[in-house]
Amino acid sequence: LAIDACNESRAGVDLIDLKCVAPLDMKAIIQSVDKTGRLIVCEPDWQDYGIAGEIIAKVAEAGCQFKVEPERITWPQRYVGQSVAYETEFYPTAAKIKSEILKQMGHINV
C-alpha cells in the first residue's frame, strides 16, 4: 500500500522483499542503494539488535554513498500492548512507511 501510494506521487521506489535473512541477499540491496542513494528497512521487531540494523551496517561497510541517512521502521522500544488502541500506535503502518519514503525523497509536505 505504501509503495503504491508513493508510485502514484511519482516517487520511484525499489521494494526488496526478503523472503529469508539467511542467506541475506545483500547484492540486491546494495545495487538498489547504489542506484538510489537511499535505504529504508522495515522490520517487524524492536529497533535494537535486529536485522534492520545489520542490513544498514552491511550496506555502509560495502561503501555505499547515502543521499540521506538510512532509516529503520520498527516497533518502538517499549511494552507491546494487547489492545486495538495499542496496536494501532505500535505497529508500523503503510502511512508511516509512505511518510518516511517521501521524507527521504525530499518532499516537504510530509
What average pLDDT do the residues reach?
82
Strand content: 5-15%
Task: Please count the helical segments.
Answer: 5
Number of strands: 2
Structural class by SSE content: alpha+beta
Write structural notes for this entry.
A two-stranded parallel sheet has the order 1-2. By secondary structure, the protein is α+β, with helices and mostly antiparallel strands. It is built from 5 helices and 2 strands. Helix 3 (51-61) links the parallel strand 1 and strand 2. Helix 1 (2-8) packs across helix 5 (94-104). The model has no long low-confidence stretch (mean pLDDT 82). It starts with a helix and ends in a 6-residue tail after the last helix.
Which SSEs are present, and which pair or pack?
Blueprint lengths: L1 H7 L17 H11 L3 E7 L4 H11 L9 E5 L8 H7 L3 H11 L6
Parallel strand pairs: 1-2
Helix pairs in contact: 1-5
Name the descriptors.
globular, 110 residues, two-stranded parallel sheet
What would you say about this model in short?
It is built from 5 helices and 2 strands, in the order ααβαβαα. The chain is of the alpha+beta class. The two termini are 17 Å apart.
